[in-house]
Design brief:
zinc; Quinone Oxidoreductase, Chain A, domain 1; alpha/beta; GroES-like_sf; oxidoreductase activity; Alcohol dehydrogenase; metal-binding; 26% helix; Rossmann fold; 356 residues
């Protein structure tokens, strides 16, 4: 089969690799229909995630069809159409029993495209299939459903829920890429007073407005002053970091009010300074996190009911064999207007929200 293989920092290729097979009785093999590219994949290609070994097939999000299952799999069978979650859960360790699947100590957690071969391929082996894939409604489009594998549960759990967004809050989302836009969409479920989006790219700020941001700010033009003006100098109740660079994290800590929450979602490859000389007195809460995907069944029901703007985040689609081109488009988002790039399925070369 063909797959997108990481060969070290700055090196990757769409190439032939062996077909996956069931190795454990809890495994399933899925024929991939649709996949997407994550910002974390770009971090891997830059060398920011050293655990990923050369020779690994990348990708941790997919929709596809079950073609083979191990003898212990009970909830899916060949022919079922499923969402492959970005998180794998053994279901037995203490963390899994608490619903903290991202911290699984039984061989799960974030392993696809990280510690084992991932989803950016024609087929993928999924360990612990009973808890790590989700059956899909027949009417749900694959290009929409694949966004429920990672970005929506990540933004909702690590951003909105960890940030304790409440009715009447001022919420600032720093970074209006796919995760930030999904955070804006899911924060709206809690009726905040206002949502402010901060980014460097005008097209992404326009997309943020379309998806529910009440105000937007260019990150180069003192957004903390805008937030101060909107909140009588107090700052935001919740600030969600959705970029993953030191400057954006430090900006978040300057915009939060006393007693507020900073929810870090971004994947950081470099150290960020924690200015405790300013923050020690402010009673703020800073959270980090890897998504657990405990919310995925709920989000799937909401998406099926049309309550999540999944399709509005998909700006480009490609056939699976144009993986290298899709990576180039996604990596140059400031030039291409890319938000979420989806490969496979039936729709190709779509240009939608946030592009020209």
């Amino acid at each position: 089969m063909k797959a997108f293989v990481f060969h070290g920092a700055g090196q990757s290729a769409w190439e032939d690799v062996p077909d996956p097979a069931v190795k454990e009785p809890t495994d399933a093999v899925v024929r991939v229909d649709s996949v997407t590219i994550c910002g974390t994949d770009l971090h891997i290609l830059k060398g920011d995630v050293p655990e990923v070994r050369p020779g690994t097939v990348l990708g941790h999000e997919a929709v596809g069809e079950i073609v083979e299952v191990g003898g212990d799999v009970r909830t899916v069978r060949p022919g079922d159409r499923v969402l492959v979650s970005c998180i794998t859960a053994c279901g037995r360790c203490d963390y899994c029993r608490q619903g903290a699947y991202g911290q699984c100590r039984g061989g799960g957690g974030w392993i696809l495209g990280h510690l084992i071969d991932g989803t950016q391929a024609e087929y993928v082996r999924v360990p612990y299939a009973d808890l790590s894939v989700h059956a899909l409604p027949a009417a749900m489009d694959s290009a929409d459903a694949v966004l429920l594998a990672d970005i929506f549960p990540t933004s909702y759990e690590v951003g909105v829920l960890n940030g304790h967004v409440r009715p009447g809050d001022t919420v600032v989302v720093v970074g209006a890429g796919p995760i930030g836009l999904a955070a804006i969409s899911t924060a709206r479920l809690f009726s905040p007073e206002r949502i402010v989006a901060v980014d460097l790219v005008p097209a992404r700020l326009e997309a943020a407005r379309e998806l529910g941001a009440d105000a937007v700010a260019d990150a180069r033009e003192a957004p903390e002053q805008l937030v101060a003006d909107l909140t009588d100098g107090l700052g935001a109740d919740v600030v969600i970091e959705a970029v993953g660079v030191p400057e954006s994290f430090e900006l978040c800590t300057r915009m939060v009010r006393p007693g507020g929450h900073v929810a870090n979602v971004g994947v950081h490859g470099k150290p960020a300074t924690l200015h405790l000389e300013d923050l020690w007195i402010k009673n703020i809460t800073i959270t980090t996190g890897l998504v657990d995907t405990h919310s995925t069944p709920t989000l799937l029901r909401m998406a099926a009911a049309g309550r999540l703007p999944t399709s509005r985040l998909v700006t480009h689609t490609f056939p699976l064999d144009r993986m290298e081109e899709a990576y180039d488009v996604f990596a140059r988002a400031a030039d291409t207007g890319a938000l979420k790039v989806v490969l496979g399925g039936e729709r190709h070369d779509v240009v939608a929200v946030g592009t020209t």
